[in-house]
Task: inverse folding
């Protein structure tokens, strides 16, 4: 289901930071009215373990610049890192983790937008 541009615009600094550090398969999932715990997810895939750490750093730097408080979970996980800012949750997966958890399928009824990879 397509998503309206104004829904994700306020989170573009985070999405741009992830894109600039070579995240792949970046999706914004609008959960307003569907979820009781978050308004949206940003889901991205890391190219490697080092890239996963870089993506967490880039996303949190962007969030710091936006004045958004957050907490990080799964810092030692090889599959899934999570940055929880309450109303927005950023999921950074390895390819194996993304294939295993399949969040897009779990939230398939929610409007979403895919952002093209920088390499495309």
Result:
């Amino acid at each position: 289901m397509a998503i309206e541009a104004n829904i994700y615009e306020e989170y573009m600094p985070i999405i741009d930071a992830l894109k600039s550090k070579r995240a792949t398969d970046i999706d914004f999932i609008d959960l307003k009215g569907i979820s009781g715990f978050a308004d949206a997810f940003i889901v991205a895939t890391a190219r490697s373990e080092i890239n996963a750490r870089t993506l967490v750093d880039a996303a949190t730097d962007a969030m710091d610049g936006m004045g958004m408080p957050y907490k990080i979970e799964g810092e030692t996980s090889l599959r899934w890192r999570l940055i929880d800012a309450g109303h927005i949750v950023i999921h950074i997966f390895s390819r194996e983790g993304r294939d295993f958890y399949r969040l897009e399928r779990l939230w398939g009824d929610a409007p979403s937008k895919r952002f093209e990879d920088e390499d495309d």
Remarks:
- Residues 5-109 form a domain with the Beta Polymerase; domain 2 fold (CATH 3.30.460.10).
